[in-house]
Specification:
The protein has about 110 residues and is α/β, with parallel strands linked by helices. About 40% of the residues lie in helices and about 35% in strands. It has a five-stranded mixed beta sheet. About 35% of the residues are buried. Belongs to the anti-sigma-factor antagonist family.
């Protein structure tokens, strides 16, 4: 049974990626592949739902930073949803939290797009 899953769906002009489990070195390629679908979708905004993450190491944070950079390069609005636990602490300690738009729910993130 995998320790990480990523799924996605299109909501109008917004692409929602749900990440569940352990986003680490081993599963970063799964996340990257799902994000590639977002970039190719033609969506004007991307919402990354990390509510289901149980663990995120430096590689996982790196993937989120790459996603932020890619969205900026493509002029696509990006928001994170459900930031909690270790990921919230890492983003706060590193000073990265303000770099990301963070919403409490997918619904609220979609309203903001």
């Amino acid at each position: 049974m995998p320790f990480f899953t990523a799924s996605s769906s299109l909501h109008g002009t917004a692409f929602v990626v749900q990440a569940c489990g352990e986003l680490d070195y081993q599963y970063a390629p799964v996340f990257r592949s799902e994000m590639a679908k977002a970039w190719e979708s033609g969506a004007s905004s991307v919402v990354i739902d990390v509510t289901g993450l149980t663990f995120c190491d430096s590689t996982g944070v790196g993937e989120l930073i790459l996603s932020l950079q890619r969205s900026q390069a493509l002029d696509i609005h990006l928001s994170l949803v459900g930031v909690h636990g270790t990921l919230e602490r890492i983003l706060t300690i590193t000073g990265l939290r303000p770099a990301f738009e963070i919403s409490p729910s997918v619904e609220e993130a979609l309203r903001g797009t």
